[in-house]
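Priority: medium. Attachment 1 of 2:
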């Protein structure tokens, strides 16, 4: 049993010693919580994995594999039932065509984790260069997490319900350029019988149209893609040219799930899922450590057609407000800022800090939080700001 102060933050760390142990974590609480498991190492990479939703009948997720890039995708499943859980696995290509099937059994409250090429597919599948979708069907409630790996890096990927989705997605951070930083947009059509027509809108920090190369085509402002039923669309920037930053929004006539994977030579990779819409602001964990070169930053996009005023509050782990700052977001604009770059009203020692950032807004915004360490990115949870 543990306790978390009102408006506060609790960090629990394992020591990494002893034999390898794997499994799952479930937290039951008497108050609303948000959480993340940050796992990895200097050798294998770093990933921030937010809490998994409860899926009554299963879920689906994108699967990518590439021998040339040494890229693999794995799935972890946990049973939320006290009974044996029969799992059906179905693999589809990027056009939504079924390629192979398999099955598994999870014991009560049990856990399993496999790379997609370790599953005993019938018939066998060539994963040397693969992009598609894995569908998990279950007769009992389950939760799932999907992680992509490349040498020295972990990347979190989206997991979506079989029967619900969103027709509007927001990605509060997008970047490309300098020959080292690129972005990959993955969009998964959750409709099993209708092709999705999706409009992708790219905006710069000032809310103007952003020009970028997507799959070899120069795009300014917006582009439209067709995604087959149960299919997957993958759009890559080339990382060439001056650095450009901004945000992405996607509007579709069918429910979608999505992620943007940031890839930076020498700075790591991160899979950042779509950001929620916050009507009045949000709350997110913050960690900085100068000696370990740990920084945490927040990217925010304005969803309104007028400038917004934001008030940022810095709270310690006990939920006490330490400092405040104000900033503005242009109409449909974007900003990305590290914790120590805010114009705080008072001097605060951030050389070794664990706490929370609370942002209040006078309009709709979306946000993404990313923690950086040497050669690594990790996404962190963003929660709706509690009512006063």
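Attachment 2 of 2:
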């Amino acid at each position: 049993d543990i306790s978390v102060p009102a408006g506060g933050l609790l960090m629990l760390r394992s020591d990494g010693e002893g034999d390898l142990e794997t499994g799952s974590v479930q937290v039951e609480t008497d108050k609303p919580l948000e959480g993340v498991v940050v796992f990895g190492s200097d050798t294998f990479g770093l990933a921030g994995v937010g809490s998994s939703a409860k899926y009554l009948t299963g879920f689906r997720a994108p699967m990518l594999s590439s021998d040339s890039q040494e890229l693999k995708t794995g799935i972890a499943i946990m049973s939320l039932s006290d009974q044996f859980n029969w799992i059906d696995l179905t693999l589809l290509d990027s056009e939504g065509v079924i390629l192979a099937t398999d099955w598994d059994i999870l014991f009560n409250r049990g856990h399993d984790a496999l790379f997609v090429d370790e599953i005993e597919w019938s018939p066998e599948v060539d994963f040397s260069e693969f992009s598609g979708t894995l569908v998990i069907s279950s007769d009992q409630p389950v939760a799932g997490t999907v992680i992509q790996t490349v040498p020295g890096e972990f990347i979190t990927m989206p997991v979506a319900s079989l029967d619900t989705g969103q027709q509007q997605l927001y990605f509060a951070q997008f970047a490309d350029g300098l020959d080292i930083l690129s972005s990959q947009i993955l969009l998964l059509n959750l409709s099993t019988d209708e092709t999705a027509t999706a409009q992708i809108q790219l905006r710069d920090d000032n809310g103007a149209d952003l020009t970028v190369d997507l799959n070899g085509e120069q795009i300014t402002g917006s582009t439209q893609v067709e995604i087959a039923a149960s299919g997957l669309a993958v759009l890559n920037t080339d990382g060439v040219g001056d650095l450009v930053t901004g945000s992405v929004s996607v509007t579709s006539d069918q429910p979608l799930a999505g992620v943007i994977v940031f890839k930076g030579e020498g700075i790591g990779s991160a899979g950042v899922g779509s950001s929620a819409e916050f009507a009045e602001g949000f709350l997110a964990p913050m960690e900085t450590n100068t000696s370990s070169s740990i920084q945490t930053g927040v990217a925010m996009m304005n969803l309104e057609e007028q400038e917004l005023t934001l008030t940022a509050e810095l709270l310690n782990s006990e939920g006490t407000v330490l400092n405040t700052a104000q900033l503005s977001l242009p109409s449909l604009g974007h900003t990305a800022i590290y914790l120590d770059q805010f114009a705080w009203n008072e001097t605060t020692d951030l050389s070794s800090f664990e706490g929370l950032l609370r942002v209040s807004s006078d309009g709709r915004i979306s946000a993404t939080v990313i923690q950086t360490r040497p050669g690594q990115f990790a996404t962190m949870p963003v929660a709706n700001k509690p009512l006063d």
